[in-house]
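User: Just a sanity check before I run the rest of the batch. Below are the structure tokens for the first item. I only need the designed sequence back.
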């Protein structure tokens, strides 16, 4: 189920001419099959790292809709290590997951929190636990699950292949999906490694119809990630705080 963040519907009845794509013909490519190829690559790669440039609309009770920009670096070592570093308009934040605990730290204010995890939970179970118990959602978490395809398509009602388009110099398959509350699109590299290159999400049922756009780049598949990357050390003068549960 897509819930990555926030996109405006571009009209899910896609056509190659309308979207400027190539080969947008009936049966030209199966969106589900392409999504499964991407999912298999992420599932079978033990260590990988990538960068993300995000824009997200923030709808306020009054005044104009605001757009927030962020940059992220995401590092994964399956089955039980994740590191995320975020900078941007909403502040700087980092996340660590080492198989036993989840840690988040903000640069300003200089605070951090440690969330102990029940024993025996793998990355999939940890992502679910953080979301259900604390309301914590890791950025682009759907791509971190063991089977991204299953999570992404959980509530999909329809899909379309919109042809080939270029994202950051890479030729990509452009896919579009419809759910009850959101429409989302994904661009998957058409080369030897079918990594996701771009994602948009349209929250069509939310007031103001906010939009989320993420461009993914600098993919390092089979990266040699340092153990120290996943090791948390509080910043000098940092204050430890508690994280409140949303469900007991």
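Assistant: Here's the designed sequence for the first item:
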């Amino acid at each position: 189920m897509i819930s990555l963040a926030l996109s405006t519907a571009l009209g899910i009845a896609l056509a190659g001419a309308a979207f400027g794509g190539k080969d947008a013909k009936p049966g030209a490519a199966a969106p589900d099959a392409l999504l499964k190829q991407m999912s298999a690559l992420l599932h079978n790669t033990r260590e990988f790292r990538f960068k993300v440039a995000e824009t997200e609309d923030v709808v306020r009770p009054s005044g104009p809709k605001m757009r927030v920009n962020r940059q992220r670096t995401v590092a994964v070592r399956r089955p039980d290590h994740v590191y995320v570093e975020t900078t941007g308009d909403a502040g700087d934040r980092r996340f660590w997951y080492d198989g036993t605990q989840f840690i988040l730290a903000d640069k300003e204010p200089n605070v951090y929190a440690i969330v102990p995890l029940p024993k025996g939970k793998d990355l999939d179970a940890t992502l679910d636990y953080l979301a259900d118990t604390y309301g914590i959602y890791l950025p682009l978490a759907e791509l971190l699950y063991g089977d991204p395809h299953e999570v992404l398509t959980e509530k999909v009602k329809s899909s379309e292949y919109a042809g080939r388009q270029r994202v950051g110099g890479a030729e990509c398959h452009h896919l579009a999906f419809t759910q009850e509350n959101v429409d989302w699109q994904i661009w998957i590299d058409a080369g030897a490694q079918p990594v996701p290159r771009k994602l948009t999400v349209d929250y069509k049922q939310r007031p103001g119809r906010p939009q989320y756009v993420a461009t993914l780049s600098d993919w390092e598949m089979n990266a040699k990630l340092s153990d120290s990357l996943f090791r948390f050390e509080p910043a000098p003068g940092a204050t430890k705080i508690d994280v409140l549960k949303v469900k007991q």
